[in-house]
Amino acid sequence: MLATPRSLLIEAQVATQTMAEGLDAMHHLLARFWEDAAHIDCLPSETWRHLFTTALAEVVANGLRHAYAPETPERPLRLRLRLFPDRVEALLIDQGEPYRSAPCTTNLPEDDVDIANLPESGYGLSIAYASLDVVRYHRTRGGYNCWKLVKKLQQQR
Known about the structure:
This protein is α+β, with helices and mostly antiparallel strands.
């Protein structure tokens, strides 16, 4: 469904160039975004925001860490957030290497795994898939990685 100007409530964007500034910029953008949502009485619950923020941070961190070669100092990343009456959408775009794994796979641990022996990484996309309603990836012809993340808002009763 295409957004019309009347259905789009809030839009915010940020562009970063380095690993160090990427996550900080995302958190500052989110803080302003939630403040704006509160001003128009569309602020999702704290739990909802934590789930969305965690998923978004995982995908942003993956893009900053894994899309670029380790020695690459500049890691351009653009992030756009949009609030609609029924959902929040995030679009992340980077210029790194293409994502090679199947984005629909998850690697969450089994129920009987000893948490003391879990690896410290490798769960980012699984967390995003578990926390969001839509996680889509595509590579553009121009060489950009694009991730679209969508989380539906709870219906007010």
